[in-house]
């Protein structure tokens, strides 16, 4: 037990120290050129959908959740935008809509430091290693959803460092420098892309050992190897 506690303490110290030795400009200037690279329609999801929702909200066409999910609310907002601008009203965001939508700056949903972006990317790397991009964003989204829940601390750092919450602090996987995909996943979650639909818990059924708490939570969705719960 003492060895486990010592290992966690070392992981936490490394996590906080190594944040200061990363390229912060890399975290601040992540590539968002994905927006406009495809036609978006109902049923799509991704960082580009989250950016579209932000733009539509800034233009007062959209007042729904910034979740990166192209549902009925996003389609309706696109239709209103198309109607007001004399375009074909079909709720599909394609070349004609892209050509006239103002070049508004996408903003993070949270007022955080670049250090916190790196910290979030490190935990995504540790907890979602082997997962695809959506699975990585999902883990980041859970951390951010916890900030908005009264059950958890109200900062990224405090959520991540809360005792006993993340196994990657135990096995040291969170100590590794995050790759570009983990940084993109962190930014996508911060922009509002939430494929977990507001989940605040996740676990891997293949490796989970303590499962008693799961029965007290509501299943939301499964993404890759993780099950997400509220």
Automatic annotation (TrEMBL):
The record's annotation in InterPro entries points to: Cell_wall_hydrolase_SleB, Peptidoglycan-bd-like, PGBD-like_sf, PGBDSf, SleB_dom1
Q: Which domain of life is it from?
A: Bacteria
- Domain (Cell wall hydrolase SleB): give its ranges: 130-228
Protein name in UniProt:
N-acetylmuramoyl-L-alanine amidase
**UniProt-recorded Gene Ontology molecular function terms:** hydrolase activity
Q: Which residues form the Peptidoglycan binding-like domain?
A: 47-99
Q: Give the organism, scientific name.
A: Halanaerobium saccharolyticum
